[in-house]
Amino acid sequence: MDNPSRWNAPMPTPSGLIAPAARALIRRVLLACAALVFGGAAQAAPASRCRPWREERDALAQQAMAAEILLVQQTRQRLCPVLERQAQGANAAELSYGPIDYRALIDCRARAEQLLRKNRAVLHRNERGFLFYTVEGARLARRSDAVHLAGRMRGCP
What we know:
- The chain has five helices and four strands, in the order H-E-E-H-H-H-E-E-H.
- By secondary structure, it is mainly α.
- It has a two-stranded antiparallel sheet. A two-stranded antiparallel sheet has the order 3-4.
- It is elongated.
């Protein structure tokens, strides 16, 4: 180990000795330079530290959205069964249903969403404004929001 009293001794230079105040300033400048140079390694740590929170949040949000999408699909199936079958067939690359009337499909979706807003209580609204009508979707969305908040409190974006 170095002798600590040696750090406070004047530093010999070609022109003489460096005063202790100048030495402290040099030390601060060197530390600042080291922070700039090695700061990139410190910046990589938060990204890897935040990954588990992001992955858990995203998985929960995806499951919550799937529950809501299923509800909208079921509502569209009741409102527009022929169009919904055509859309399902198109998603499965079946050509036996013929061309799809996309305008009618969009209108059907709008009616389904309107019917949901009218007949179902909103159980949760996430911070991005997405509405959850199903118990399962709302439960998962709340968990996703809680994970997101916990990550943000630990400095994760």
